[in-house]
């Protein structure tokens, strides 16, 4: 049962209280009083078997002074599966945060292309707060495989975007859950781009979206082997895009002949589409595309100390031209 309080005034000093009793004896009942709506308008998720919950109002000596109002409903499940080779996983109501009422929330990323590897790039992330370095109250588990018991890749919580995650699997399961003693619904905001690569973990991929992110393999760790990776980036419609390198560090030679990034206009890395090559430690300026598709190519010659790069892209949505109305009739 999900309970939303819309008004609440129960004087604590007069011995009044309202208690939500859980049927499940492993869960603690919650007692409230005062003028604040319980838990900042959050839904109260009372787990346990059955559909009946008990709310006990103790008026104390404040029978005429106490008042409260709430509504209730069954919880909504947000479980879902993504089957495209790349895309963005986000919470319901994004970019606003949302309350997750029925947990665990299970998101399966199961691209049609098999045999590749998946990478995750966190555009925005906020879920709970770490306690003593651990996600004790609530967390997002990232598991390599199709089930909630697959090998753990990472456990995430807090309000800072995590570093990219690189899996050797072509299937990832995201599990958001809370500690069983936490009866309040979880407030979460997340937007995660996933990319399938057939060139190795984190090495290239094909992406079409209004915004997104990608990075060199293993970022922010150093590149460990010689690689040639190609990202085919597209934005919808006839829009152009802006590509911004948030981080860039490649240990290149003076002539920029090894360890570099190139940008091509169009859908291939042929010479006629070549635009620019970046290398070294200098932070590239934002790149404005001429069309709606570009290719970003990374070439490395072997292990090198630079952390590589992290890039964001976003469509430059064209404004709709103003509509001009013409009167029908005799013209002067």
Automatic annotation (TrEMBL):
Cite the Gene3D superfamilies for this sequence.
Answer: Spermadhesin, CUB domain (2.60.120.290)
> Which segments constitute the CUB domain?
78-197, 203-316
Cited InterPro entries: CUB_dom, Sperma_CUB_dom_sf
Entry annotated with the keyword Disulfide bond: yes
Do the record's keywords include Disulfide bond? yes
* Pfam families for this protein: CUB
Q: Which UniProt keywords apply?
A: Disulfide bond, Repeat
Q: Name it.
A: Putative pcolce
């Amino acid at each position: 049962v999900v309970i939303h309080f819309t008004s609440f005034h129960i004087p604590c000093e007069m011995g009044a209280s309202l208690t939500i009793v859980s049927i499940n004896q492993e869960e603690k009942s919650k007692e409230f009083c005062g003028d604040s709506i319980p838990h900042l308008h959050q839904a109260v998720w009372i787990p346990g078997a059955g559909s009946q919950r008990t709310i006990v109002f103790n008026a104390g000596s404040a029978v005429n002074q106490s008042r409260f109002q709430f509504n209730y409903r069954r919880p909504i499940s947000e479980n879902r599966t993504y089957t495209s080779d790349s895309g963005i996983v986000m919470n319901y109501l994004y970019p606003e945060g949302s309350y997750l009422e029925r947990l665990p929330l299970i998101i399966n990323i199961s691209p049609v292309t098999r045999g590749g590897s998946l990478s995750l790039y966190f555009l925005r992330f906020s879920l709970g707060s770490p306690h003593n370095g651990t996600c004790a109250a609530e967390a997002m588990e990232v598991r390599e495989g199709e089930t909630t018991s697959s090998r753990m890749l990472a456990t995430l919580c807090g309000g800072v975007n995590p570093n990219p995650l690189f899996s050797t699997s072509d299937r990832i399961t995201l599990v958001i859950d809370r500690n069983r003693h936490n009866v309040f619904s979880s407030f979460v905001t997340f937007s995660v781009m996933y990319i399938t690569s057939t060139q190795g973990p984190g090495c290239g991929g094909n992406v079409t979206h209004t915004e997104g992110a990608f990075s060199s393999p293993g970022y922010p760790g150093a590149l460990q082997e010689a690689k040639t990776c190609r990202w085919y980036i597209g934005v919808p419609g006839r829009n152009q895009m802006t590509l911004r390198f948030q981080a860039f560090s490649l240990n290149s030679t003076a002539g920029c002949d090894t360890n570099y990034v190139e940008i091509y206009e169009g859908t291939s890395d042929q010479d006629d589409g070549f635009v620019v090559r970046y290398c070294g430690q200098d932070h590239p300026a934002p790149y404005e595309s001429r069309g709606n598709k570009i290719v970003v190519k990374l070439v490395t010659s072997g292990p090198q100390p630079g952390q590589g790069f992290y890039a964001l892209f976003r469509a430059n949505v064209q404004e709709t031209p103003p509509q001009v109305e013409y009167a029908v009739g005799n013209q002067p």
